[in-house]
Amino acid sequence: MKSDTAQILVKRLPHHAGLELPSYSSEGASGMDLAAAVDHDIQLLPGERCLVPTGLAVSLPFGYEAQIRPRSGLALRHGIGLLNSPGTIDSDYRGEIQVILINLGQERFTIKRGMRIAQMIVSPYVTGDFKIVDELDVTLRNEGGFGHTGH
Predict the structure, then answer these.
(1) DSSP strand pairing (49-59 vs 80-82)
(2) 128 by DSSP, 3-state: which?
(3) Which residue has the higher pLDDT, 27 or 142?
(4) Cβ-Cβ contacts under 8 Å for 120 (sequence gap 6 or more)
(5) Exposed, middle or buried: residue 65 (CB in 10 Å: 0-12, 13-18, 19+)?
(6) Is-contact 117 99, C-beta < 8 A?
């Protein structure tokens, strides 16, 4: 059974020329790969971070967001992650999608044009409406915080 599909309007910026649009790598994939739209290789030393352009801007339907997440292969093999993970693209944002990569590994990492650097998940969201109350309902966990279950 296939999930719903949201239409995403996409604008290719000049530096995206020749690159593939984000796509799903398999039928069951939830994330589309985003590619680096850089004009030269970027050397990312251990501990360094950089902002990597994708050359794409999108228009998401109202009530949807796009989450930008790390790629597990880059994390496992090279220690490459995203600082603000997941990054959020709101439905009213029209600027370029850019990815903040960080090298948490121990070796220099080279970002090349067209390299798959992150994945984008498109998802519906609900908004919250805060209501002040004097008491909250009681649960089994109640105020148990980090590590309270002993696991």
Answers:
(1) unpaired
(2) coil
(3) 27
(4) 22, 31, 32, 33, 34, 66, 67, 68, 69, 89, 97
(5) middle
(6) yes
Which tokens belong to 1?
A: 């059974």
Domains, the chain, ordered by start: 30-124 (2.70.40.10)
Structure tokens at 124: 């519906």
Indicate the residue type of 52.
V
Q: Residue 151's pLDDT is what? A: 58
pTM (2 d.p.): 0.86
Q: Is 16 helix (H, G, I), strand (E, B) or coil?
A: helix
The one-letter amino acid code at 148 reads H
Place of tokens 């004009």: 39
Q: Tokens representing 33?
A: 């790969």
